[in-house]
Design brief:
This protein is an all-alpha fold and 80 residues long. The protein contains 3 helices and no strands.
Length: 80
């Protein structure tokens, strides 16, 4: 059963590609959207500034450090 329904199972080999394709379509549609505008609920105020992109914030170093640690650990285990 795990072979068919598991994360790395036979069906996932095909479903993952469909999911990637639909996510890519959604991302391209979102990129074409107009910037947000004030609405009746915002009382005429402009939307908040989103700030720096996520890749330019210092907090991005945390997942990079975790990934580097696990990569280092994996290399140490494999090479002995």
């Amino acid at each position: 059963m795990t072979f068919v329904l598991g994360w790395w199972g036979f069906l996932s080999m095909f479903v993952n590609w469909v999911t990637l394709w639909t996510n890519g379509k959604a991302l391209s549609q979102a990129a074409e959207m107009a910037p947000p505008e004030p609405t009746a609920w915002s009382a005429g105020k402009a939307p908040l500034d989103p700030g720096q992109p996520l890749t330019r914030r210092w907090q991005i170093l945390v997942p990079i450090a975790v990934a580097a640690f696990w990569l280092f650990f994996l290399v140490q285990v494999v090479t002995g």
